[in-house]
Design goal:
The chain has seven helices and no strands. The chain is mainly α. The chain is extended, with a radius of gyration of 22 Å. The termini are far apart.
């Protein structure tokens, strides 16, 4: 009984996790393009050379520090929400999220080899990758069902959905 009640929670958590993973995967190439356009490639090489001289523990600091300046941006987003500036709040929060994921992907790309030398970090990394695979497996049947429904072949459509579509089509035709 409890498992059935928690199923929507786990699916929601898996979807959120997969959105984060999708952002990570898709922002990393965008960051690479930005790096190619502005002189960040030289900065990336410089940072990589410096990271090579650091211990894995110091590399963890290099990985964590760039995210700290984004914290005030999130506070601004919360302030905007509290003062009911909804659109501005959403823009600031989404911008902060995208910049945060992009910067983290950029820094992680530089520091990954050193960070994975730490046993606990490697364990956490492998756990997150396993959770990502599990989340993808959990959401896959739902995504497949949605694709089948959107294809419109009728096999995945419930009678209630079909009646709703028919009623909508009828109202559109009557409005003409």
């Amino acid at each position: 009984m409890m498992r059935r009640l928690l199923q929507p929670f786990w699916v929601l958590l898996a979807v959120i996790f997969l959105i984060e993973a999708w952002l990570w995967d898709h922002l990393e190439p965008i960051v690479e393009r930005v790096v190619a356009r502005i002189p960040l490639r030289a900065f990336k090489q410089w940072l990589s050379d410096r990271v090579d001289t650091l211990s894995p523990a110091m590399t963890l600091i290099v990985f964590a520090v760039p995210v700290i300046p984004l914290f005030p941006l999130k506070l601004v987003g919360l302030w905007l929400l509290a003062n009911e500036y909804w659109l501005s709040a959403v823009v600031v929060i989404v911008f902060g999220k995208l910049v945060g994921v992009g910067v983290t992907a950029f820094i992680f790309d530089v520091t990954r080899a050193k960070l994975l030398q730490m046993a606990w970090f490697k364990t956490v990394y492998e756990f997150i990758m396993a959770m990502r695979a599990k989340a993808a497996a959990l959401v896959q049947p739902i995504k497949q069902r949605i694709r089948e429904m959107l294809r419109g072949d009728g096999d995945g459509w419930s009678s209630r959905t079909l009646r709703l579509i028919a009623r909508f089509r009828k109202s559109v035709h009557e409005a003409r």
